[in-house]
Amino acid sequence: MNFELVAASNNSRARAGVLTTDHGKIETPIFMPVGTAGTVKGIHTRDIKDDIQAQIILGNTYHLYLRPGMDVIEKAGGLHKFNLWDRPLLTDSGGYQVFSLGDIRKLSEAGAKFQSHIDGSYHQFTPESVVDIQRTIGADIMMAFDECTPGGADYDYAKKSLELTQRWLDRCFAQFNKTGPKYGYNQSLFPIVQGSTFAGLRKIAAANVKTFDADGYAIGGLSVGEKEEVMYEMTELVTADLPENKPRYLMGVGTPVNILESIDRGIDMFDCAMPTRNGRNGMLFTSEGTINIRNKKWENDHSPIDVNGASFVDLYSKAYLRHLIISNEMLGAQIASQHNLAFYLWLVKTARRKIIEGSFSGWKNEMVPKFKQRL
RNA sequence: GGGGAGUUUCCAGAGUGGCUAAAUGGGGUAGACUGUAAAUCUAUUGGCGACGCCUUCGGUGGUUCGAAUCCAUCACUCCCCA
Fold first, then answer.
1. Does the pLDDT at position A101 exceed 90?
2. Does the annotation count A314 as an active-site position?
3. How confident is the model at residue A103, as a pLDDT?
4. pLDDT band for position A338 (50/70/90)?
5. Which residues pair with A257 in a beta bridge?
6. For A29, A39, A136, A353, which has the most beta carbons within 10 A of its beta carbon?
7. From the CA of A237, how many Å to the C1' of B33?
8. Does the C-beta of A282 come within 7 A of strand B?
């Protein structure tokens, strides 16, 4: 894997780059649609590629391990073959599930013991097994197994949590170096910077992560309940310490505004469930601002979803989409998800162009108040 | 013609003397959602000069300290048998 910077903003830390993998190039900054269970919910692979123009999508270790299971994925020849996605793929390690599954998981030095949310059965993840699983899935970018420290954690908890993540990271890389890809193309392993909202811990985490000569570095444990200013502050702090010549991935972020602000602070990669999940639930991110399509005010608004037209679905009217969502028609969730993802990809693509043209900051300052609007 | 069941707040449907502006579901309205246990969850849904008052349980008239709940009567709906 190779990362090349092609442009940098002269009055901010924003950069544009190209990340090259065996499944193709990724132009950064990039947004990666979340495809937890081997599917970007509701969207055909064809539309993810041709309409949304995603360059890389996610899969999830925990979810794919439980269902369909590694036996099926391996026999399919990896997730790329299984879901017909032939561009780069990144898998999350299950670290987020360590956080989100809350009381049906137990942490220990060895790893995390989970109870399946599907049938209640017990499973153990270790840094080693999580690397093995991601080898089997065949992700171009695999993520280290970490504890996504819960928002609001106190210093002692955050410190212990970070130290556990760091010990797990050693084991992840040991396993990574001991094993090889299964399907003939290269895989990379990204470490994750934790440290909660404590500047000191974040600094320690960034320094530690740099001791591994990784192909890219992630920042995790943000957007978990802390104030946005704190998230930006932590992001800025960490990107200042990470190597310039490697991509930085801010995990789980965020809103369109979050993304622009984070690009401004030197982030290259993003993922978030928001465009799909919120889309299914009736929230649309548009070039004019955010709308709740279920609101009565759209009942007779026959104008296009978004005049920006990042996707063909934008031609459908707000009134029609409102009708579909309110009637619980499947197509409603699909259109909303597809629109939101296309908008997100348009957003990062435009940000990239502005960085290259040298006008990112001005453009960002113009866009942020627009995107903050509730229509 | 004979016998039976019923009429409750937007809808369906509980409730059969005070704890009932009235369960629950649907529908409506609004909100939430950030490495997806989420096509999910939450709030609200008679009126008002709102920690109180007023009007609601087919109509009318009673019984009672007190009625959606008991009695009488009228109206309408449905089912079964002729």
1. no
2. no
3. 79
4. very high
5. none
6. A29
7. 27
8. yes
CA distances from residue A123 to A105, A115, A126, A306, A368 in whole angstroms, order as listed: 9, 6, 10, 45, 43
Strand B contact at CB of residue A266, distance < 7 A: no
pLDDT at A99: 85
CB-strand contact A117/B, under 7 Å? yes
* A272-301 pLDDT, tens digit each: 999 999 999 999 999 999 999 999 999 999
- Please, which pLDDT band fits residue A104 given cuts at 50, 70 and 90? confident
The residues of A between 127 and 146 with beta carbon within 7 Å of nucleic strand B are: 143-144, 146
Give a three-class secondary structure readout of A116-181. CCCCCCEEEECHHHHHHHHHHHCCCEEECCCCCCCCCCCHHHHHHHHHHHHHHHHHHHHHHHHCCC
Q: How far apart are CA A336 and CA A277, in angstroms?
A: 9
Token readout for A239 is 């990107």
Please tell me the pTM assigned to this model: 0.94
What are the residues whose beta carbons fall under 8 Å from the beta carbon of A327, sequence distance 6 or more?
A: none
Rounded CA-CA distance A236/A157 in Å is: 23
In angstroms, the CA of A53 and the C1' of B18 are apart by: 68
* pLDDT digits 0-9 by tens, A222-259: 999 999 999 999 999 999 999 999 999 999 999 999 99
Residue at A351: amino acid letter = A
Mean pLDDT of A146-171: 95
What gap in Å lies between CA A26 and CA A352, rounded to an integer?
12
Structure tokens that stand for A16 in this block: 């544009």
Q: What are the φ/ψ torsions at residue A223 (nearest 5 degrees)? A: 55, 45
CB within 8 Å of A338: residues ≥ 6 apart: A42, A43, A47, A51, A52, A279, A311, A313
Phi and psi, residue A23, nearest 5°:
-105, 15
CB atoms closer than 10 angstroms to residue A64:
26
| Distance of A305 CA from B80 C1′ (whole Å) | 57
